Automatic annotation (TrEMBL), chain A:
Name listed for the protein in its UniProt record: GerAB/ArcD/ProY family transporter
Keywords: Germination, Membrane, Transmembrane, Transmembrane helix, Transport
Domain of life: Bacteria
Annotated GO biological process: spore germination
Single GO cellular component term: membrane
Pfam families named in the record: Spore_permease
Species this chain originates from: Salinibacillus xinjiangensis
Automatic annotation (TrEMBL), chain B:
Origin species: Salinibacillus xinjiangensis
Transmembrane segments: 6-22, 34-50
Name of this chain's protein: Uncharacterized protein
Keywords: Membrane, Transmembrane, Transmembrane helix
């Protein structure tokens, strides 16, 4: 085993929760509201139910042999060459995913916070923090997540509480009367972030201290994250209105701008930004870590740190060249990314599960 | 040209600082793969600095999933 560190069950829960919230918390309300309009929160609930199903499937996959991570598992189940080929598919996806996440945070900072700073510079700074995280190993990432989790979580809860007086629930009525088809079809793009990306936790599972509580922790993290996502979408719809939510690129950030308490507590939208910085930092770091882990398994290297520096620079440049502008990005995320993510996030784990199951049965019949 | 020289100089510094950690692992394979990836990363950065148009892999993914994506895209766009 290349990685020798171990993380606790609570750290694993926090990491899953942060991973579910990262990116999704700020871009998902606009994506769902574009198609489901006033019913966007129902779309989120349906996506959450399907997401729990995906978690169940992933838990089944790791139960085949929980001492092996995703890349070892695919080689173990599918044989050396096919397993390596499947690993390449996983790794390409994770590379593109990390680059996309990095681009999203860069895009957010350059459009909302520091408008004049070149995007390359913002992405460079974020990537360097993640690089330090990966260099220090999984244990340090786990402990850091425990430290920063309260800040991210409280600022999201504070956002929900403080913005509540502005809510006008006539905006979300009538429930499920119009755009019913859109409500159900919008589940497809909604699933991409975060549910179809959860498969990367198959690579983290073997390093969790105890296995059975970790399976439960996976459910808990995803459920709490999805509930927060649903509540934020509901608040966006109630406060900003469905059309305004759909037109914004970062609606939860605009939601933060609406906070106004007794003409005193105003313009604290940076609360949302804080929550987002922390969650996306852990998302990028985990993705980058799994990418390094997979690369070192693929090339049979001695340490996960070996390739981290060159990969960091590749990711920065990838983040810039992947999408020409935000329109192109939105089009890709809404119409094409779901199928690519589904291939990697559902189809390949299913394949592993099926082949693993058949192999187990054959072994049993041979012994019997 | 000035930018390229600066990038290469920075790359040399990064290489000198970073290669020490790889050297510690005392594995020949680690060193070989590291150098290959470093050259790849450096060439991508240099191409980007020289403003060469690198084609995005996103176009390829779009082409592959076109048959599945197009019908659902049409029905989704009805609800925009």
């Amino acid at each position: 085993m290349i990685e020798k560190g171990k993380i606790g069950v609570r750290q694993f829960t926090v990491l899953v929760l942060m991973y579910t919230l990262g990116t999704a918390v700020i871009i998902l309300p606009s994506l769902t509201a574009s198609y489901a309009h006033a019913n966007a929160w129902i779309t989120m609930v349906i996506a959450m139910l399907i997401g729990i199903g995906i978690v169940f499937m992933l838990n089944c996959v790791i139960s085949i042999d929980w001492k092996k991570n995703l890349f070892e598992l695919s080689e173990h189940i599918l044989g050396k060459w096919v397993g390596k080929a499947v690993s390449v598919l996983f790794l390409t996806y994770i590379l593109l995913l990390t680059a996309t996440n990095l681009r999203q945070i860069g895009e957010f900072i350059t459009t909302q916070v520091t408008v004049e700073t070149p995007i390359q510079f913002v992405m460079f700074i974020f990537m360097m923090t993640s690089l330090i995280g990966v260099r220090l190993g999984l244990e340090v990432i786990g402990r850091t997540s425990e430290i920063f989790f309260p800040y991210a979580f409280t600022s999201l809860i504070l956002l929900l509480i403080l913005v509540a007086p502005e809510a006008d629930f006539r905006n979300v009525q009538p429930v499920l009367q119009e755009d019913i088809g859109g409500t159900f079809l919008a589940v497809i793009p909604t699933l991409t972030t975060p549910y179809l990306e959860l498969f990367i936790f198959l690579a983290i599972f073997p390093y969790v201290h105890r296995f059975k509580p970790a399976k439960k922790a996976f459910y808990i993290g995803v459920i709490i994250g999805s509930v927060i996502l649903t509540l934020i979408t509901l608040m966006c719809l109630a406060v900003l209105g469905p059309d305004f939510t759909a037109r914004q690129i970062f609606p939860s950030y605009i939601l933060g701008k609406k906070i106004s308490l007794a003409n005193f507590l105003e313009r604290i939208e940076i609360l949302v930004a804080i929550a987002w910085f922390f969650t996306i930092f852990f998302k990028i770091t985990l993705n980058f870590y799994v990418l390094n882990l997979g690369m070192s398994h693929f090339f049979n290297l001695k340490s996960t740190k070996t390739l981290s520096t060159p990969l960091a620079f590749i990711i920065i440049i990838m983040g810039i060249i992947l999408f020409t502008d935000i329109i192109y990005y939105n089009e890709f995320v809404a119409y094409y990314a779901p199928y690519y993510s589904a291939t990697i996030g559902i189809l390949l784990p299913m394949l592993l599960l099926l082949v693993g199951f058949i192999r187990k049965k054959k072994k049993k019949s041979k012994v019997g | 040209m000035f930018k390229v020289i600066v990038v290469v100089l920075i790359a040399v510094v990064v290489f000198l600082l970073d290669f020490a950690t790889v050297k510690k692992s005392k594995s020949k394979k680690d060193k070989k793969v590291y150098i290959a990836f470093f050259i790849l990363a450096l060439s991508i950065v240099v191409l980007h600095v020289m403003e060469v148009n690198i084609p995005t892999p996103i176009e390829g993914i779009k082409q592959i999933y076109q048959p599945v994506a197009e019908p659902i895209r049409k029905s989704l766009e009805k609800y925009l």
